[in-house]
Structure formats: C-alpha cells, structure tokens
Amino acid sequence: xxxxxxxEKLHIVVQPGRSLTRSMYLQLLGELxxxxxxxxxxxxxxxxxxTFTLWLCLHGKMLTTExxxxxxxxxxxxxxxxxxxxxxxxxxxxxCSYGNQVWNRLLNWIGQPFITPQSWTQHLEWSLTHGKGKxxxxxxxxxxxxxxxxxxxxxxxxxxx
Length: 161
Ligand SMILES: [Zn+2]
What we know:
By secondary structure, the chain is mainly α. It has helices spanning 2-10, 20-31, 38-41, 48-59, 65-70, 89-95, 97-109, 120-130, 136-160. The protein has nine helices and no strands. It is globular, with a radius of gyration of 21 Å. The chain binds zinc ion.
C-alpha cells in the first residue's frame, strides 16, 4: 500500500507486460545523463585490461599523484614520464611529451594524423569523432586508443615502482 503511494507520487508508468521494478529501473535509467564516451568503451577489441584502464581514465579514477596528494598522501607530484610538469590525468594524456610521442607514433602507424591536443576536453572530442561508427578504421582507432592509454599508464607505473 505504501509502495503504491510512492509509485504514484513518482509518476512511474507501468507498461503492460512489465514488472513495477523494471518500469522503475527503466524510468530512473532514462533520467541519468548519457555518458558521451561510452562508444569508446563498448565493443572495443582491445585487451580487457586496456579497456579497463581507459574506463578508469574516462571516469577520472586513476590514482595520479595529483589525486594522491589531494587525499593527503605526500608523494612527488612530478610526472615520471617527462619530469617536467605535475602529474594529473590531463597532463599524462594530453600534455606530456612522452605521452604525445606514443600517440603520434602509434597513430601514424595506422595512417591517422595526431594533433597535439590543447586540453583533455579537446582530446576527448577528437577521440569520440575518430572512434565513432562501425567502420574498420573506427574499430581500429577505438582499440588503439585504449591500448595507448594503457601503455602510457603502464609505463608510468613501471617507472614509479
Ligand atoms: Zn609528463
């Protein structure tokens, strides 16, 4: 009885043939903002660990020295790949000279010119543009995108340990 009152207050429409739970789930799902980068993750032919690293990166969940220092851990904030700037996600994947060399070499390998991005947002938009669709080139780009992010992060971790 109480649940029915809540459902009525939430204006949940139960479609014929659907359970109340599923109707609530679908309605709540519809209210969530679309994740614009989901196309870079799903149906990606990269290794699962590379896709997971990309997922962490896109969620901003990587344990960069910037994040660790914000949590009160006292770690050297300098990027171990270029030793020139503070390390954060934006630096590692858009500004770092080491990272840019990896992007440049591997994208040239598939005939995709690499333009050094000015910001993470610009890099993400560029990735979404080239990784969109079902063409062989888009599929290869998505795979390589995940593998490059993983390779840069892996190299960074190797140098720290
Ligand atoms: Zn760097």
